[in-house]
Amino acid sequence: MSITSDIGIMQGRLSPKIDGKIQAFPISNWENEFKIAQEIGFHSIEWIVETPLNTNPLLSETGINQIKKITTATNVKIEFICADIFMQEPILNEPDSLNKSASLIKQLIINGHKIGAKCVEIPFVDNSSLRHKDYDYLINFFNSFKDILIEKCFKISLETDLEPEIFQYFLSNLNSNIGANYDIGNSASLGYDFEEELNFYGDRIFNLHIKDRKLGGTTVTFGTGNANIEGVLSKLSEMNYANGIIIQGARGENDLFTATSQLEYSKKIINTLNYV
User: Fold this and answer.
1) Is the pLDDT of residue 124 over 70?
2) CB 246, CB 227: distance < 8 Å
3) For the chain, which domains are there?
């Protein structure tokens, strides 16, 4: 029974809020975040891709070289890319949307491979939610990436708000390089039973977001919401989970203090599980 102790943080959590948003690409501070993450003790940063695309370093050769330079200097990795742009511009069952989305995902796979990443996360929550919608077109869409995923040794993880059995059915129709991003807080907010979820598709989870949320409510301080963070980590430990763990917690008045506290909270649980 064990679980990885390498913990990362979502990009932007080590920078001042942008336009009051809880999560955004820190265009003026992204390099400094790697230095801060190194000092605090984070293993990695999950890179955000959102609009405007033309200012994101991951989408240019010059930017890729900058990223490689800072990750090498700090030894803080980028293993996961969070494509939040697909909440801003959902993947619709329309030729223009499908072609545009496929082109961007392929670029993220190619460029992500260049910086040492191993997975791109596609969110289907909030504005891009799949609940009560037809998603069958997405099965063919995502399976079309099979060859490039194999070629680049890359993966795609999907974060959805689908009920556990429905999400498991969705995943069962996708090739093995496509799996799940599991967000502890979001599932708690929806009222899902984490044990049922992990029993259905725990073996397809590529990345885990640690977050706490109130039932039907917003993100809150670890330990004050309805998310059973310790229970999820314990269940994954029983499954010898060795994939990604990223902190995506609530913001605080002092971002560095908040991030440090969240890391210590998570490591305390994991160290106890691994000791047992």
Assistant:
1) yes
2) no
3) 8-275 (3.20.20.150)
